[in-house]
Amino acid sequence: MPLTLPKIPRLEKFCFCMDVHTGVKSCTLSLIILWIIYALGALFGNNASTGNSIWAVIWCVANVAAYVLVILAMRKSNKMFIIPAVIISVFNVIVGIIQAIIAFASLWIISAIIILIIVGITAYYTLGLKTVYDDISSATAAAAEPTAEPPADMKSVNKELNQILNV
Q1: Cα-flanking dihedrals φ and ψ of residue 87, to 5°?
Q2: pLDDT tens profile 34-44
């Protein structure tokens, strides 16, 4: 018997109170603001080394760019713009879990708990992104399906062309 992977869950509501598209858009804007704040902290904070600050700024810019693409994807119904945010979000979850393990091992319990909360929110957001991706895919496929009947105004054009050609 072949091994089948479980399906990725589909969200019906975002945060139990919003439709998925509105929730993903709101969460995306919040994440953009948080990553900008993080970049400013990395640039102007005095606790980090130069190399760490440069890496943090590069990662923040990548996150902000990916999340801006999500907003564009939702406005233009282009599902391909969602893929970078999904990849970055999955990476953020994996790195967050590693950071939480290191924080627990270093006995930074509060930091580890905060990191795990952020990981959970990011994982939930990733499910929202997947749902929006699927919705855009199905909307694009439905729009691309040809109809059997031409529109009513095309029927009249076809009729007139047939009359002209038969004359």
Answers
A1: -65, -45
A2: 888 888 887 88
Confidence label for 48 from pLDDT (cuts 50, 70 and 90): low
Weakest-pLDDT range from 18-32, 105-119, 129-143, 147-161: 147-161
**Cα–Cα distance measured from residue 18 to residue 29, given in angstroms and rounded to the nearest whole number:** 15
Instruction: Report the predicted TM-score, pTM, of the whole model to 2 decimal places.
Output: 0.73
Alpha helices in 20-151 (DSSP H): 20-44, 50-76, 83-105, 109-144
Burial 95-122 (b: 16+ CB within 10 A, else e): ebeebbeebeeeeeeeebeebbebbebb
Which position has the token pair 């760490």?
52
- Region for residue 67 given its phi and psi (left: phi exceeds 0; alpha: psi -120 to 50; beta: otherwise): alpha
Q: For residue 22, count CB atoms less than 10 angstroms from its CB and return exposed for 0-12, middle for 13-18, buried for 19 or more.
A: middle
